[in-house]
Amino acid sequence: MHYDSEDTGCGISCAVNLAIRHNWEHELSDDDQVVMAIEGHWKTYSLVIRQVEADNTLRFLCVYRISSEKINDGIYDLLNRINDLLWIGSIVFTYCGDESSIFWRYALQLGPEPAVNEEQVETIINQAIETMDKFYPTLMSLLAGDTDPERAIALATPASIGRA
What is the mean pLDDT of each run of 10 residues along the chain (164 residues)? Predict the structure, then answer.
């Protein structure tokens, strides 16, 4: 399925319509992919949404770049701890020379008639930004060398106070 501004069931059309409505910076890089810049609490994230016919999915990738100099062995332990807490999407790390990336990724499996609506797409976009914002301080604290993975994850999972 390719971008068509009139096709309200196309994931890319829904994403572009949302970007226009929310005044998000966006670029249609191909008929089946849109790239957006969305302001989160901690930073502006790049969000890529791509409709893939081969496996009939609408893929979401939310990313920010980090300096590879900050990477330490604790990142893999911390990512495992983070992903244990996630039920929607996962956070992954890629090492690429001087600059590395932290990604939140998710794929929405579409049916035989690949149709989605703007509400579904907006819900997933919001989930991406909320998840990245939730774990940004956790990851930055570890990468700054301020803490270990066990303490870092506590930043995103505050302890309960009191009792029910």
Answer: 54 93 92 93 95 92 87 88 93 84 93 85 96 93 87 78 61
The residue range of the domain holding 106 is: 11-154
Are the beta carbons of 81 and 149 closer than 8 angstroms?
A: yes
Residue written as tokens 């930055």?
Answer: 140
Q: Can you give the pTM of this predicted structure?
A: 0.86
Question: Is residue 142, in this structure, part of any structural domain at all?
Answer: yes
Write the CATH number for 35.
Answer: 3.30.1460.70
